[in-house]
Each structure stands twice: as structure tokens, then as C-alpha cells.
Amino acid sequence: MEKPWSGRFKERTDRLVESFTESLSFDRRLYRHDIEGSIAHARMLAKVGLISDEEMRRIVEGLEEIKGEIEEGTFPFSTSFEDIHMNIERRLVEKIGEAGEKLHTGRSRNDQIALDLRLYLRDEIGRILSLLRELEKALLHQAEQNMDAILPGYTHLQRAQPVSLAHHLLAYMDMFRRDEERYRDCLKRVNRMPLGSGALAGSTLPLDRRYVAELLNFPEIVENSMDAVSDRDFCIEFVSTSSILMMHLSRLGEELILWSTEEFGFLELPDAFTTGSSMMPQKKNPDVAELIRGKAGRIYGNLLCLLTIMKALPLTYNRDMQEDKPPLFDTVDTITACLSILPPMLHRARFNRERMKEATERGFLEATDIAEYLVMKGLPFRRAHHVVGSIVSYCLEKGKTFKDLSLKEWRSFSPLFEEDVLSVVDVEGALDRRKVEGGGGREDIRRRIERLKEELGP
Ligand code: ARG
Question: Ligand 1, atom 12: nearest CA belongs to which residue?
């Protein structure tokens, strides 16, 4: 069968060119959305009288049959018809003849692929949002189980101040909640209908763009036809949002890796979510978390790839833009894989509360609270900081912790110390003393968890 555009050519396309230019090998995953868009287009053509109702019915039936063939694996794909769009159209003509030849009226593959990508991403964002929800629920579950577990909070990876495990985990919760917001926001701009733009300059035919938008459930159209066929910023925005999510996932992955080392010992990952070594019989490795960390690099690469493809392209469509699909699809697949595996792994992770607690006992984690104790007794903070610094230095010299100091020793550093300082050096009490909103005190965490339970649902 001839190519749809063969009219002006005297020579057949070189095989090398066919295999070089084809996109069928990767864009066939758009078949459902391509068919959905074509059905809406055909309905519109019938509505404005460019095809008859009978022709429209035959087109719709033919396209439904084609969908069945693709899903059953009997569809005769051929790379000599370049892409998914031409493969489906050619098959339709094969099936229904002349009516099939009318489908592409007032349409170009340029606005067709823009539509397909938008329909596809709209679905994928919806799926990603529900996977993100599962991750948030797994985090919430662990936070709730671990409200009283206390561990060192770190800066510079040095022990800094005691925090509850719930507070630490809920920090990730807030990152993922923002990722969710970013996807929802991105969806607003994905959710615009480009069809009717033709190759670049609309059409002389009386196409009804608003009707197509309505049929496909788009709240708005992409107004400017030149923009509609040449814009891929909605894809870039999706991959950029995904890059930020991957950055968050890789930080969580990194902490799971660190915490499950012998050195930290804060965490045991479930056997089913770890792997062994081919040589060292004793090993249990956190490969899943490591791969999540690694895959972040891949998504950043996809972002840079898309930005670079689009950089300096003159308006409107250029074939370069076909290269948008591999990085886009890879991003969807990678995000889906990471978000599917993390919730069950996290749900079953076991935290070692004793080891965490022990870790808070060395490193003078109460130092800031003690300085604040002095502030409450009237000492300027800078001076309080200095006093506590000297106490730390004294303890280091004597091999003592704050807990080992007698009231007499405390008072030798400042007469402001009284009996009640002894309660400040108790880390357990630290969480009760944190009063500031969002500071991870017991009350604060309880409130946050209650609110999240309402927001996330069962
Ligand atoms: N396969 C093409 C792509 O993915 C579809 C648009 C082709 N348009 C064209 N004028 N060759 O970008």
C-alpha cells in the first residue's frame, strides 16, 4: 500500500530512511488515545456536515475494531507507515474504504500528536497521583506507629537535636504533598485541546474546536494554532515536576540506605524488598532504595534531553519533536515503578527504636535546649550559647555526658542553673518541651497526623 503522502514523490523511500524516521516502535503506546481523539474528530466532522452520519458511524466502528486488534495482538503494524497515526489510518482505509479516507479532513499529524500526548499525560498524571497517595499513606502509617520513637535529627550528618521519628517521616510527607500539588497544577496546562490547529494555521473548513474539546472533556482549547502544534512545555513541565519528585524519593532512598547500615542500625528493611550478594553469603543489600536513588539521575537526564530538543526550534512543528517521546515515556515508566515499589517496602520496614534512642544519648543533643533554658532565666542567647559550649568542652575533657553532671558542676558554669536543669537533660522530655508550631513537639505531631488522616482518607 502507498504512503498517504506519496503523491508528490517519484522515488520510493529508502529503507534506511524508513527505519531512521519511524516512531512506531515507541509511539504505539499512544494507540488508545489516538483512537479516542480520532473518534471525537469524526463526530465533529459529522456535526459540521463534512462527513455524513453514516460515514461517521463506519469510522467509529472501524476504529473500535482496530483497538480490539491492537489489544489482541493481531494488528498488522508496519514501520513503512512511520508512526501510530498513519498505521491506524491506513488500517481504517483498508477496512472501510472511502469513509476512512475522510477521517484526516482538517487535521494534521502535528495537531494529532499534540492531542494524543495531552490525552495520554492526563491519564498518566491521574495514575501517578493515586500512587503518590499510597506512598503518603505508607508514611502516615509509619509516623503514627512511631510518634514516640526518638532519634537524633542531623545537620551536616552530625547529631544535632532529638526529634521524633514521626516528625522526620512527616517532613517527607510534606515534600510529597507539594509534589502532588505540582502534578495537579501541571494537569491544568496539559488539559487543553489542540485539535483544529491543522498543520499550523488552522483550516479553511468549518471545524468546531469547542465541540471536540467538549467530547474529550477538555475545559479549554489551546488557542493559538501555531502554539498548539509546536508547544511541548506541558511535557517539560511534567518531567520537571517528576524530577523534583525523584529528588525527594532519592533523599528518602538515601536515608533508608544509611539507616539500614550496621553503623546506624535504625532500620531493618523486609527481606522481600532486599537482595543478596553473589559472593558474600552474609549480605542483605538495600538495592531497591539504591535504584530509586539512581533513577533520579535518569529523570534529570530526561528533563535535560527534552529542554535541549526544544531549545531554539523555530516555529512551528519540526521533526526533532518526535524525539520527545522516549524521554517522556521513560519518565512515566520510571516514576510509576518507583512509586509502586516504595509504599509496600516502607509499610513493612521495621524501625529499631532502641538503637535510635541510644544514638540520642551521645552527642550532647540537649545543648540547644539547655541554652534556651538559660534564655528563659534571663541570659542573652549569645551568652547562653557560650556557657553551654564551655560545658560541652568540659564534658568532653572529663569523658562525661550532660546527665553525669552534678548540680554543683552546672552551677560552676552559671548560677542561673537550678534543680530543674536535670529535667532538661532528659531527651524523652525534649518532645514535650517543643512548643512552637511545626516544631515536632508531641502535640504538634498528634494534630498533624489527625489532619492527614482526614485528608488522605482510609
Ligand atoms: N511521529 C510524529 C511525532 O511524533 C508525528 C507528527 C509527524 N508530523 C510530521 N509532519 N511529520 O512527532
Answer: 322
